[in-house]
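Input record (one chain):
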Amino acid sequence: MDAWPSLPKTMLAIGKARFSFPSTPEMDGNITSRHYSVRIHFQGQRESFSLYTGNKAAAAAKARDIYTALVTKGWPATREQYKAADSRAPKSVVTVSDFFNRIRETHTGREGTLEEYFGAFRLIVADSFGIDGTKLKYDYRARGRARWLERVRRSG
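The corresponding structure, as predicted from the sequence alone:
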C-alpha cells in the first residue's frame, strides 16, 4: 500500500527531496553554504540546484518549481532557466560607494549600526589609499567633509 496515495506527484517529489547546505572543502576545513540546495534525479540524470535561500519552506517551493519545469520542459530548458543564474557573473563592486549600496540592499538590521561600520570602513579606506583628511574631514561648514567623503567614495 502506498503511504502517500492522495498527494500529487509534486508533493511527493518535495517530500523525497534531499535538502542540504552544500559544503566546499578549504584548507581550514569545510565551508558550509547558508543556502539550501537540492539534488534531483529524473530520467536517468542527477543534478544539484542551488535554491538561494536558507528558509526550508521557500526552498521547498523553489525545488517544486524546478521539478515541475523539469517534467514539463525537460533537462535543457530547466538548466537554462535555473542554472543560468549560476553562470552569470555577479555585479562587480567598483567603488566604496558601490560596496555600501550593495550592503544596504540586503541589510536587515539597524541603520545606525550600519552607518557606524561604514564610518570605520571609510577610515580604513582613506588610510589605505593615502587620502589625507586631517582637519578637513571634520569641516562640515566649508564642505571639507563632503569633499573628503567624495574622495573616499570614489576609491576602489
